[in-house]
Structures are given as structure tokens and as C-alpha cells.
Amino acid sequence: MSELAILGGPKARTEPYPHWPVWDERDLQAVMDVVRSGRWGGFPYPGPKTAELAKKFAEMQGGGYAVPMTNGTITMEVALRAAGIGWGDEVIVPAYTFQATASAPMGAGAIPIIVDVDPNTYCLDPKAAEKAITAKTKAIIPVHLGHQMADMDAILALAEKYNLIVIEDCAHAHGAKWRGRGAGTLGHFGSFSLQSSKTLTSGEGGILLCRSAEHAALAASIIDCGRPHALGGGPEDPNGLSMQGGNFRLSELQAALALIGVERFPEQARQREEMAAYMDESLSEVKGVRVLKRDERHTTRSFYRYIFAIDPQEFGLEHDALCDALEAEGVDCWVGYEAMHNYELFQPQRSKLAVPNAFPEYFNFKDMHLPEATRACEHEAVWLDEAIFRAGPQGVDDAVAAIKKIQRNAAELKK
Ligand SMILES: Cc1ncc(COP(=O)(O)O)c(C=O)c1O
Description:
- The protein folds into 2 domains: 25-261, Type I PLP-dependent aspartate aminotransferase-like (Major domain) (Aspartate Aminotransferase, domain 2, 3-Layer(aba) Sandwich), CATH 3.40.640; 265-414, Aspartate Aminotransferase, domain 1 (Alpha-Beta Complex), CATH 3.90.1150.
- It has helices at residues 25-37, 48-61, 74-82, 100-107, 126-132, 152-162, 213-223, 252-283, 312-315, 319-328, 371-380, 387-390, 392-408, 410-414; strands at 65-69, 90-94, 111-115, 137-140, 165-169, 177-178, 181-182, 189-193, 206-210, 289-291, 305-310, 333-334, 381-385.
- Strand 6 (177-178) and strand 7 form a beta hairpin.
- By secondary structure, it is α/β, with parallel strands linked by helices.
- The strands form 3 sheets. Strands 1-9-8-5-4-2-3 form a 7-stranded mixed β-sheet, sandwiched between helices.
- The two termini are 15 Å apart.
- It contains 14 helices and 13 strands.
- Helix 2 (48-61) packs parallel to helix 8 and helix 3 (74-82) crosses helix 4 (100-107).
- Bound molecules: pyridoxal-5'-phosphate.
- Residues 71-73, 97-98, 100-101, 143, 169, 171-172, 193, 195, 206 line the site of pyridoxal-5'-phosphate.
């Protein structure tokens, strides 16, 4: 019989990894309290739970003015609009990310300019970004991907040199720190998602951290139907309209759940960080596996997903074959996103942008060479579920044993 579960052998991990999100009596109580209070929605903005979440979240990340809203996509669109970025402007985004990072600029009317990533971190490559800067470039959106952080020193230097707004996409980076400073507090804005897979969740939701009180007040107006908002306070005039906006308010029910998540977060983060260090060490012994380099300026890591790379030649398989085999072993994993330039949305001839065949000068993929993102997305990246870390050292041992077993039997699987 084969050693591999995918070929009928025994599984490396028989017990399921822990479920996410976690909850207990505190979550039930928090929701019941909101239900009983009769104050369920987000109007007038911010509600008491939302205001408390804003305060506690800014404290947790270590600064800024937090504006909670409906999700971690609108956060980026609102940031761009609050900074006055829109029609005809260009916004630099990395090729390796969730579609939201590029669709948010489009939502604001700007053009996402897709650039390659650094193979050591899989995050935006500042050198590629600099080459893409034109007179129309107004902002840059680095994504802190999986468990990595983009090189914020280089990105902030670029922003300074070319007068760009920096919006950190921190959908994966709750609690992460760069030189001891919280992700999302380094740029002008930090965008966080509270969607159900995220390490701080309220089912759906988002928080925009703003460096300036002016930007925070504008963001609050945009998500509250354009009502004017005072700096750091509630609406000045609930019937007034200061700008065009929409209803993107977080509900009090969601804010209550996120507040319990904030309470739980430090212990979860500590456990993930400890187990991830063990994972780095254990995986570095596996043939054909490359543990992503840890930048020493990335002082606290957070783990939405743990990403590693394989060398398909040396490992003996491509990443999709490894992932299928790992799933069969009982270890949840994923090959990660498509390279941004492979999404149909950005193909000029099949464009789903509002204007058919729009912007061929920007989205001409014949001329677009993004070798690092392509290699990561098509051949080498493997994303492990953070649930592995919540299962303690045994969780890591089982995952690593499964990867080693697959590598040992790669030739059999390839046949
Ligand atoms: C990198 C990244 N940015 C933005 C988002 C968007 O967050 P939301 O789903 O809350 O809109 C996600 C969500 O998965 C993400 O992974």
C-alpha cells in the first residue's frame, strides 16, 4: 500500500484541526446585550460599541484614528477618496494579492498599476514600484501578505520622494509590527478586514486606521452617507451633507463581536507566533522547501496564513500537486491567489471593467512581465492554514510529517 493518503495510505493527521472562528459565552453575551439594548445598527455613527471598538483597535495596533466600516475593501476605497484620489489617478498595487487591493482603486475611479513582488517576502517590490511611478501616480498600496510584511522603510521613502499616499493593506496583518510599530500605523492609512477568515473577525467588517484626524473625519463622512463628521467625534449635524457618501457603517452587533475578538487576540497571537517559529525550524529541514526569509525589521509577525515556497524540481512536485496531497493527509492548505494579471477582470479583450476594452494601455499583458508573482502563483507558493498553530506542537509536527512524506513519495505521486 502507498504511504500517501491520496493514494489510499494512512493520513498523517487524523484529528481535524480546530475550527475558526472560535467563540464562547462572551460572544453570546455580547450579542445578547446588543439585541436587548435595541441599538443594533450603525446609525447614528458611531454607535457605542463601534466607538469602543475604534478606541480599542487603535490601541491594539499602536496608534492612529480608527474608523470601523462594512469590510476591508471599502476601507481602501474610502482611504483613496478621503485623500482626494480618483478619476485618472494611478495607484500602485502588488501582483500577488486578493482582488480587493486592485478593485478598491477602481471603485474610487483610479487605475490600479500592477507591479511585481519580492521573492523573499512575496510582498510588493519597492524597486518595481519605483519603475512604475508616473506623473499620475498618487498612491501605493503595499499588502502585508499571509504572515509577511512589505518593506515599509523602502515604501515610505518612495512615498516621501514622490509625494504618494501610502495605504497599507493589512487584511492579513492584525497585530503585526515593523520596527516595533503596528502594521497600518506606518502609512497614511491602514486597511483591516474583519471578514470571517481573518484573525480578528466579526463575520464581516473592516477598520480603516488613519494617521490624521482630518482623514478620519472625512472617512467617517464617506461611510455615513456624506454626513459631516467632527474631527475625532460624532456627526456635527445628522441632517447635513458635506460630501457624496454611502451607508458603509458597521453594525453594533458586529462591533460587539469584534470587541470580544480584540480581548482574545493577544493570547492567540502569542500562540501563533510561538508555533510559527517552530514551523520555520521544522520546515527548513525538508528537501525542496524554502522557508520565506524573515526580515529582522519585522519585529512581530502575525499569521493569517503561513506561506512557504517549494522548488518544484528539488521537491519533485508542483505546488498544486503538493496541496492536493496535503489535503488528503488531513492538512488544510491552498496554492494561494492567482497572479493579478491573470484575472479576467484585467484582460483588455475580456475586460469586466465598466467600459468594455477599457485601458489597454494599462492592462496590456503581452508586455507585462511579472516573473516573481508568476512563479509564486503558478509553481511554488503553499499557504498553510493558521489552525495548524492553534493545534499546538502536535499540529505543526503532523503538518511537517505530511509534507516530508509527500516529498519522499513525490516520484510515485507524479506517476
Ligand atoms: C489582502 C486582502 N485585502 C483585502 C481584502 C478584503 O477584505 P473584505 O473581504 O473584508 O472586503 C482581503 C480579504 O480577503 C484580503 O485578503
